[in-house]
Amino acid sequence: MRVVGEVRALNGDEAVAYAVRQCNVDVISAYPITPQTIIVERLSEYVANGEIHTEYVNVESEHSALSTCIGAAAAGARAFTATSSQGLALMWELLYVASGLRLPIVMAVVNRALSAPINIHCDHSDSIGTRDSGWIQFYVENSQEAYDTVIQAFKIAEHPDVQLPVMINLDGFYLSHTLENVRVLPDDVVSGFVGFRKPVKVWVPYLGREVPAVLDGYTPISLGIIALSDYYYEFKMMVIKAMEKAREVIKEVNKEFSELSGRAYGDGFLTHYGVDDAEAVLIVMGSAAGTVRYVARELRRKGLRVGVIRLRTFRPFPYEELTKLLKDVKAVGVMDRATSPGAYGAPLFNEVRTALYDCECRPVIVNYVYGIGGRDLSPHTVKELYSDLLEIAKGKKPSSIVRYVGVRS
Amino acid sequence: MSKPLTVWDLPREEYLAPGHRMCQGCGAAIAFRHILKATGKDVIITMPTSCGEITSTVYPHTAWRVPWIHVAFENAAAVASGIAAGIEALKRKGFIPKDKDIKVVAIGGDGGTFDIGFQALSGTLERGDNVLYICYDNEAYMNTGIQRSGATPLGAWTTTTPVGKVWRGEWRPKKRKDLIAVAIAHNVPYAATANPAFPVDLYMKVKKALSIKGPKVIHVLSPCVPGWRIEPEKSVEVGKLAVLTGMWINYEYENGTYRVTTPVPKRKPVREYLRLQGRFRHLTDEEIKKIQELVDAEVARINKLVGKEVIGPVEG
Q1: A114 CB within 8 Å of a chain B CB
Q2: Which of A58, A269, A349, A391 could form a disulfide with A345 if both were Cys (CB 3.0 to 4.6 A apart)?
């Protein structure tokens, strides 16, 4: 059944809050930080006005925000939090706890550069730094997708095969503070789509029966026990396997959601434009995809064979999908909005290059680091990147494999 | 007046299973056992990282016959708040019966309470969350092998306040952080100190705390065999001597009123408490005198709060 829904003017933060309002969330715990603050403000208003019957815990730090969500989720509740930058850094150790305890918490991260120097503007170094923490990571392109992805996130996180936390990343200010027309679904439709959280059951040998894997106040199970060299590895493997299983679930939920709303995001992992016959392709995540696509369209109109891939999921990383798409491309430019001092290129570049290593016609892959600390990415710059790539596609040796774009020398 | 409780009146149910890896004579193990007798089975326990945590839940075993969770070191209070909020929300939605009374109890060590968990504890107390927070205080980081914490008393040897040519054990020249005063400053309805050497008193305080809505704090002294350098069979004796010398005062605070639950008409000198413990063996008469002065001042303060002399002077 297709539901059209109404159009509202929402910025990215408001779109996230609006979706959370509709998702039957039991506990919200968060701490304000620019540029995430609007999310907590809107959610507080919903609770204050009785629009949602959610427990809102005003904590004293992001560390406690995620701790509170972990406690709530462990008790069987559906929990949500949101943060940015330093807040995410403060949550660090708990990110691993949330995934290790297999708690389907959903968190919006409004991407912002990390200190020092202190900076409130967008780059992806905060969330990219958490890539190994066992969280599913989405990077959305616009407020509409932020709204849609929050709704999908609860379904993905709580799927019995997954049971992992999900992080929805949206670019600070570019998305968080920019009004867009967002088509929202009716409350009852979203509520029906996500349903209520159903805790998975596990077999507990010492109880001799299957019990819900939550702290229900009746069933004596221990969560977060110490597992040393004899068992820890197996627990880690379960997270790795769950992340692999998430691939299928992300696809499914993307499809289900598109049947409901008419909006799909490719296969759930990535969207692309002009790649089929392209010689040069730029790979990008987040709001910058709009600018890159705009330039690609312009260049294609002039007959240049360029394309763009916008990655939506970074974890799990869609290496198979990428390999398929890029099998006939000669030059690939990977645009990273994060740095990794001392590494050979930035994180997304490394992932893409690794994925394409086994590709038969191995394309030349270069890294363009851009937009650090909110540095603007102009269409003019993107045009330059494409012409650089096109020359590489024609056989020119790249001047350097890793280029830092738009920085003073 | 009903007859006072004795150990024979405590519930026979054991919710802390035997076979855990806590030390012989561990004060915390005795405390946990009696805390659980008071909570009963409808409770969710959250513990920060601590010696009691790692020794009671070595996978694939657990000593906890009640729902239990460990998350990290500095957040037992925040996790407890989250559990309480989750239960509240699930009750509202009808997933948990509304009349089901599920208690939420955090049990942390002194490091996880006085130091690294202080901020989260403050948040929980300040918001008024319906959580009982219990600190079992063995007066140092025992899990990592006896390092000084914010709760280490003056003069105590630890591996980070060693006795050398310059240092003489813990050096802070005044009373340590007052957890009960901190709790009361957050306007909690109930706060108390307890001691596993007085299990009935501990049991009754946990019972009372759980009957009150809102945030509650109980500070429990926890004699530590390896950390205090005492013999396993002496931990209860040391716990008793702590009270008999005034080093530790069992009292409670309820809505503005202080009450000493173990009055000591005539105190023993602190030397008797100190001399049983290897961590104090280096102390000189002069240093012991200084500790005695601190204890005298604390006794005077508590007597003043109570409004009469419930802890008497040092005998002979």
Answers
A1: no
A2: A349
Shortest distance, CA B104 to any CA of chain A (angstroms): 9
A59 and chain B: CB distance < 8 Å anywhere? Answer: yes
Over residues A48-52, the mean pLDDT reads 96
Those residues with Cβ within 8 angstroms of residue A156's Cβ, 6 or more apart along the chain or in another chain: A136, A162, A166, A246, A249, A250, A253
- B123 and A61 within 8 Å at the Cβ level: the answer is yes
ipTM metric: 0.96
Superfamily of domain covering A6-198+244-261 = Thiamin diphosphate (ThDP)-binding fold, Pyr/PP domains (3.40.50.970)
pLDDT tens, position by position, A264-294: 999 999 999 999 999 999 999 999 999 999 9
Average pLDDT, integer, range A297-324: 97
Specify if B2 maps to a domain.
Answer: no
Please provide residue A236's backbone torsions phi and psi, each rounded to the nearest 5 degrees. -65, -40
Contacts of B77 in chain A (CB under 8 A): 64
Q: How far is A32 from chain B (nearest CA, A)?
A: 15
Q: Is A270-404 a CATH 3.40.50.2300 domain?
A: no
User: Residue B37: CB partners within 8 Å, gap ≥ 6?
Assistant: B10, B11, B13, B14, B15, B203
User: Does residue A57 sit at the B interface (CB-CB below 8 Å)?
Assistant: yes
> Tokens 């009963």 — which residue?
B40
Q: How confident is the model over B145-174, as pLDDT tens digits?
A: 999 999 999 999 999 999 999 999 999 999
Please give the backbone phi and psi of residue B232, each rounded to the nearest 5 degrees, phi first: -55, -35
Number of structural domains in chain B? 1
Contacts of residue B74 in chain A, CB cutoff 8 Å?
63
- Contact of B35 with B134, CB cutoff 8 Å: yes
Residue B163 is predicted with a pLDDT of 97
> Which residue in A70, A80, A204 has the most chain B C-beta atoms within 10 A of its own C-beta, making it the best mutation to test that interface?
A70
